[in-house]
Amino acid sequence: MSGPIGRLTRGTTGYNRLRRSDRWLVHSPRVRAALLAAADPLVVDLGYGALPVTTLELAARLRTVRPDARVVGLEIHPERVRDARALAGSAPGVAFGLGGFELAGLAPVLVRAFNVLRQYDVDAVPDAWARMTGRLAPGGLLVDGTCDELGRLCCWVVLDALGPIGLVLACDPFAIEKPSDLAERLPKVLIHHNVDGQPVHALFTAADRAWAAAAPHGVFGPRVRWRAMLALLRDQGWPVEPPRRRMRDGVLAVPWDLVAPR
Question: Would you call 165 helix, strand, or coil by DSSP?
Fold first, then answer.
């Protein structure tokens, strides 16, 4: 390889910024199955930014599923790699290296690329996806996501070697007025398609209506109201994944075919 593929991004980060995606990864049956089945539980955190904190947090959380998981943080700028190595010291099972969409030649079972492709042109997404999914180990997964600065609003696409398989919206229910507040954090591949006539816009419209209809549940708190909204969407025929346990996050997960741009 001639070097990392990609370009330098802003690098903003923060402690616990990606906690919602981390919690989802830890409890997702498909992610857990991939980690547990992997002969080499290697995970890549692509584009961790100016500080390595989210990479270290990811490693700690994934080890609750697979104690021998190894996490490699990749950045395209040598100074960020040097700083990460200096700050992280000898964190067990965590390493940092220079790399981009080619994943430094690694073959991970899981790749997390958060707030990376959002800074690219939409035309660059298919090639970036293909490069990353082409490097996945058998059964591996890619998570391409975006979140706000405090990690209260998050959206991500889940992909396997064949392409996108699902969209996940996650938020702090106390931080929104309606589900469509999440639209501003859609991944690059979808954000320009949140317009009338497109499937993702229809999903937000239906979610907002169900959220309004679930207003009486708000007396028990926004988390209860969120679960009531999900139940209403399922009753209306939307293939929304049911919550598997009580969670502090509001999560709305649907198959990719439901929201793929027309």
Answer: strand
Span between the terminal Cα atoms of the chain, in Å: 36
- 32-69 confidence digits (pLDDT tens): 999 999 999 999 999 999 899 999 999 999 999 999 99
* pTM check: above 0.85: yes
Round to whole Å and give the CA distance between 160 and 110: 9
Cβ pair 101, 5 in contact under 8 A: yes
Residue 93, sorted as left (phi over 0), alpha (psi -120 to 50) or beta, turns out to be left
- H helix runs in 38-137, sequence order: 53-62, 78-88, 125-133
Q: How far, in Å, are 16, 42, 48, 106 from residue 91 at the CA level?
A: 18, 15, 16, 20
Question: Domain segments of the chain: what residues?
Answer: 19-171, 174-238
Q: Select from 3.20.20.140, 3.40.1620.10, 3.40.50.150, 3.20.20.70 the CATH code of 19-171.
A: 3.40.50.150
User: What CA–CA distance (Å, rounded) separates 219 from 215?
Assistant: 8
Look up residue 136 and give its two tokens.
């996945």
